[in-house]
Amino acid sequence: MKEYDPKEIEKKWQDKWDETGQNNATNISDKPKWYSLIEFPYPSGDGLHVGHPRPYIGMDIISRKRRMEGFNVLYPIGWDAFGLPTENYAIKTGKDPRVVTEENSSNFKRQIKSLGVSFDWSREINTTDPKYYKWTQWLFLKFLEHGLAYKAKMPINWCPKDKIGLANEEVVDGKCERCGTEVEMREKEQWMLKITAYAEKLLQDLETVDYPERVKASQRNWIGKSEGALIKFDDIEIYTTRPDTIYGATFLVVSGKEDKFTGRYVTNPATKEKIPVWEAEYVLSDYGTGAIMGVPADDERDMIFAKKHDLPIVTEYKKAGFEDFGKKVIKYKLRDWIFSRQRYWGEPIPVIHCVECGAVPVPESDLPVLLPEVKNYQPTDTGESPLAIIDSWVNTKCPKCGGEAKRETDTMPNWAGSSWYFLRYMDPENSESFASKDALNYFAPVDWYNGGMEHTTLHLLYSRFWNKFLFDIGLVPTSEPYKKRTSHGIILAGDGEKMSKSRGNVVNPDKVIEQFGADTLRVYEMFMGPFEQAIAWSEASLVGPRRFLEKVWRLNSSAWSDLSVDDNFEMNSVIKKVSEDIENMSFNTAVSSLMIYTNTLEKRGGVTKDEYEALLKLLAPFAPHMTEELWGTLGHSESVHATPWPAYDESKLIKSEITMVVQVNGKVRAQIVVSKDQNQDEIEKLALSNADVSKWLEGVEVKKVIVIPGKVVNIVVA
Ligand code: ANZ
Ligand code: ZN
After folding, report:
1. Mean of the pLDDT values across residues 565-588?
2. CA-CA distances (angstroms) from residue 22 to 67, 266, 528, 537?
3. What does the pLDDT look like over 411-433, one tens digit per residue?
4. N or C: which end of the chain has fewer CB within 10 A?
């Protein structure tokens, strides 16, 4: 047997798998379907860093195991390629963003392929491909048709550096999420999607999906439902979640820029007393009615305000019933989604403005509305899209009356394409519809979706909204797009910081593969720590996984031991452990049990073929290339990835003999081997008669013997 050399085998098997198409899902199959999904990457100019593949490898392990379990597995990939970095690069270099996207995505593709991830490349999609965005535009028109897309003059968050309007979700601590510049407010006509119409469904249906509690909590929080009452204090209406405290309301506050007394008084409808009306910043203008009743006795912020301005505080007051005053209402913090961007590199919004007919949807037969070629991608300071200055594109005929009309020049936000991409994968070539009914009925919903925590209130909420709307109008078969969601932790650089080009701490997987091979990189990324936790990269730690793979390689001998490994506790328990760990994404503990098992086999100096084959199968999802190579050397002609996942025998999981520790007054004095059917009395006798134990019992009185089955015998002496 030759030495382990990943260079000789990895590329070879990747090409072979491409050739056989064994990683591709079929749309018609007798097998049950399984749909694994990762968040498709934005193909940046910097290429892949070692953090990108962590979720790909994790879901690859799930997907490969499912194939071995007999599923027809859909595990697709594509490119979420509209967006600012490409556009900004195009502005700087004058290069066409289409060319930039093509270059970047082919580099990403090369890199991902070299990792041996079992993606179905036959379904590769790209959100910037007109064949794709035709359907993004078509779906937008469905929202328009059903009154869920509308135009409104909105105060928007404006980033003066990126020259782009931002959704609330894209503003972090008053700063642009992308570049960190302080955000300004501007008034602009914007296209809006009415996600608020789905607030209740998005909230309720969280009960029906398998998401981590922290993901659910953050969606609930973002939707921000509260039940309260609208109560009129003369002509000022307030919103409160505590109408029962109305007798304690001693002042009223309306939203304002600074604390100030307006000079006005209104009547408290419960006490009939005149109370002062104040303005203050702590009352938000866009929540509730923008006015509150001040109940200092029960609300902390009101108390601080009352003390500061010497307002009356009553601590003893009558409690009102929830229903006594006013209308009961439900409020949500969720706001409608600003769906316009005044930029070039996005899907044109397929609407034509006619003086006579107003906003007219582009007819389906004229889709896609192609992005025109332009010379200048620079956004304008007036806030208009660069498309607005291309007269030949802007000026068109009204589809309704044929009169002079102008195209909408806003484009969609970069969240558009990712709001429905999981549907397109089911039927990516379809030119008649976004996906056929058959494909949708067979593959939907996604069975398991892994992605980052940072997308919980953006992409995850948006795509649930799109899917729910499409379900309601009968276009998709399930209301929820994803059955199960998990999140991975990010890989930090060796210095514990986030990997970034500007910090110069980025690790390129190409280099790691060159030095150690893709299988070692994969095993290392799964072994380095708990999958859902952030963890720092360590170059030095790659050696361990590499040695482990070499050990597995060396165990491959033609002289198989026929040694009867009795009831083979080890093999059955490693199968059980790895099978369960994979389902729980405890990839690190799965790898470590495989390492321990390999050491056991090596030390024993005799391995049966059954044991070795089970080891290769269990390792196959983690190290697909080397296990495939070794499987072939055992004389198999089929792929290891097409063999059945190993089963374990429950009855063999109980060891016939167990080693127990014997303690005398808490100190370990001996180890005894007992058989699994020995009873407590027999074990006690065995312990007391052991030579290493009995010498500690001379001349003392044994007070108590405690047997903890399978573990310890504790002898207490006086
Ligand atoms: C009286 C009161 C008494 C209140 C009390 C709370 C406790 P959530 O649960 O977040 O919906 N509120 C209403 N509108 C507001 C606004 N525009 N800006 C700031 N605060 C506002 O909170 C609802 C509560 O927040 C409301 O109930 C109101 O104060 C305040 F012991 O009314 B409460
Ligand atoms: Zn018209």
Report:
1. 91
2. 10, 75, 29, 32
3. 999 899 999 999 999 999 999 99
4. C
Question: Can you tell me whether residue 265 is helix, strand or coil?
Answer: strand
Query: Cβ–Cβ contacts within 10 Å for residue 373, how many?
Result: 9
Closest protein CA for atom 20 of ligand 1: 283
Burial letters for 325-338: b for 16+ Cβ neighbours within 10 Å, e otherwise? Answer: bbeeeebbebbbbb
- Helices first, then strands: H and E counts in the chain: 21, 29
Pocket of ligand 1 (CB under 6 A): 226, 239-242, 245, 283-284, 287-288, 290, 292-293, 295, 298-299, 331
Query: What pLDDT is stored for residue 562 in this prediction?
Result: 75
For the sheet with 72-74, list strands across it.
72-74, 33-38, 448-451, 485-487
Q: Best of 226, 231, 236, 241 to mutate for ligand 1, by most ligand atoms within 8 A of CB?
A: 241
Tell me: pLDDT of 566 over 80. Answer: no
d(CA 468, CA 209): 13
Q: What is the CA radius of gyration of the chain?
A: 33
Which residue is closest in CA terms to ligand 1's atom 28? Answer: 240
User: DSSP secondary-structure letter at 568?
Assistant: -
Q: Determine the distance separating the centroid of ligand 2 and the alpha carbon of 141, expressed in angstroms.
A: 17
Alpha carbon of residue 59 to chain centroid: 12
Q: What is the pTM of this model?
A: 0.86
Query: 314: closest CA among 266, 240, 250, 245?
Result: 250
